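Lab notebook, bench 4. The sequencing result for the construct came back, and we need a structural model before the next group meeting so we can plan mutations. Quick request posted to the team channel:

Model the 3D structure of this chain.
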Amino acid sequence: MAKRSTRTGREGRRKLNESQLQAYRARKAATVVETPSEPVAASTDAKQAERSYRRAVQAGHVTAWGHVGEEYEMIRADLKRLTLITVLMFIIIIILWFVLA
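Done. Here's the predicted structure in C-alpha coordinate form:
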Protein backbone atom coordinates (compact mmCIF):
# COMPACT_ATOMS: atom_id res chain seq x y z
CA MET A 1 0.00 0.00 0.00
CA ALA A 2 1.36 3.41 -0.92
CA LYS A 3 2.12 5.95 1.76
CA ARG A 4 -0.31 8.84 1.88
CA SER A 5 1.31 12.23 1.31
CA THR A 6 -1.14 14.11 3.53
CA ARG A 7 -2.73 13.31 6.84
CA THR A 8 -5.98 14.51 8.29
CA GLY A 9 -5.73 16.33 11.61
CA ARG A 10 -8.23 16.69 14.44
CA GLU A 11 -9.88 19.65 12.76
CA GLY A 12 -10.53 17.60 9.62
CA ARG A 13 -8.09 19.67 7.55
CA ARG A 14 -5.27 18.00 5.68
CA LYS A 15 -1.77 18.38 7.07
CA LEU A 16 1.09 18.81 4.62
CA ASN A 17 4.34 16.92 4.98
CA GLU A 18 7.72 18.67 4.95
CA SER A 19 8.42 18.21 1.24
CA GLN A 20 5.07 19.75 0.33
CA LEU A 21 5.75 22.71 2.63
CA GLN A 22 9.18 23.24 1.05
CA ALA A 23 7.70 23.14 -2.45
CA TYR A 24 5.03 25.66 -1.43
CA ARG A 25 7.63 28.02 0.06
CA ALA A 26 9.80 27.72 -3.06
CA ARG A 27 6.84 28.58 -5.32
CA LYS A 28 5.89 31.50 -3.10
CA ALA A 29 9.46 32.84 -3.05
CA ALA A 30 9.68 32.53 -6.85
CA THR A 31 6.60 34.73 -7.33
CA VAL A 32 7.83 37.53 -5.03
CA VAL A 33 8.98 40.71 -6.77
CA GLU A 34 11.78 42.66 -5.11
CA THR A 35 11.06 46.30 -4.30
CA PRO A 36 13.64 49.03 -4.82
CA SER A 37 15.69 49.99 -1.79
CA GLU A 38 15.23 53.74 -2.45
CA PRO A 39 11.56 54.80 -2.24
CA VAL A 40 10.17 57.85 -4.01
CA ALA A 41 8.78 60.23 -1.39
CA ALA A 42 5.91 62.33 -2.76
CA SER A 43 5.38 64.14 0.53
CA THR A 44 7.54 67.04 1.69
CA ASP A 45 6.94 66.23 5.32
CA ALA A 46 10.02 64.61 6.89
CA LYS A 47 7.99 62.22 9.04
CA GLN A 48 5.98 61.02 6.07
CA ALA A 49 9.12 60.46 4.00
CA GLU A 50 10.81 58.55 6.82
CA ARG A 51 7.73 56.40 7.38
CA SER A 52 7.41 55.55 3.68
CA TYR A 53 11.14 54.75 3.53
CA ARG A 54 10.82 52.33 6.46
CA ARG A 55 7.85 50.64 4.79
CA ALA A 56 9.73 50.28 1.52
CA VAL A 57 12.74 48.81 3.30
CA GLN A 58 10.52 46.42 5.26
CA ALA A 59 8.63 45.41 2.12
CA GLY A 60 11.93 44.28 0.64
CA HIS A 61 12.23 41.57 3.30
CA VAL A 62 10.26 38.50 2.39
CA THR A 63 9.27 35.77 4.81
CA ALA A 64 7.54 32.48 4.12
CA TRP A 65 4.19 34.25 4.59
CA GLY A 66 4.81 37.34 2.44
CA HIS A 67 6.24 40.82 2.74
CA VAL A 68 7.11 42.03 6.23
CA GLY A 69 5.56 45.44 5.58
CA GLU A 70 2.21 43.92 4.67
CA GLU A 71 2.28 41.77 7.80
CA TYR A 72 2.97 44.84 9.96
CA GLU A 73 0.11 46.72 8.33
CA MET A 74 -2.32 43.86 9.03
CA ILE A 75 -1.16 43.59 12.64
CA ARG A 76 -1.43 47.37 13.11
CA ALA A 77 -4.99 47.37 11.70
CA ASP A 78 -5.98 44.49 14.00
CA LEU A 79 -4.53 46.25 17.05
CA LYS A 80 -6.39 49.46 16.22
CA ARG A 81 -9.63 47.51 15.87
CA LEU A 82 -9.06 45.70 19.18
CA THR A 83 -8.24 48.98 20.94
CA LEU A 84 -11.48 50.53 19.69
CA ILE A 85 -13.51 47.52 20.85
CA THR A 86 -11.81 47.56 24.27
CA VAL A 87 -12.51 51.27 24.75
CA LEU A 88 -16.17 50.83 23.75
CA MET A 89 -16.60 47.91 26.14
CA PHE A 90 -14.99 49.88 28.96
CA ILE A 91 -17.38 52.79 28.32
CA ILE A 92 -20.36 50.42 28.35
CA ILE A 93 -19.19 48.93 31.67
CA ILE A 94 -18.87 52.38 33.24
CA ILE A 95 -22.32 53.43 31.98
CA LEU A 96 -23.91 50.23 33.30
CA TRP A 97 -22.13 50.67 36.62
CA PHE A 98 -23.75 54.09 37.13
CA VAL A 99 -27.15 53.00 35.82
CA LEU A 100 -27.38 49.82 37.88
CA ALA A 101 -25.81 51.19 41.06
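The longest helix spans residues 68-100.
Will bring this to the meeting.
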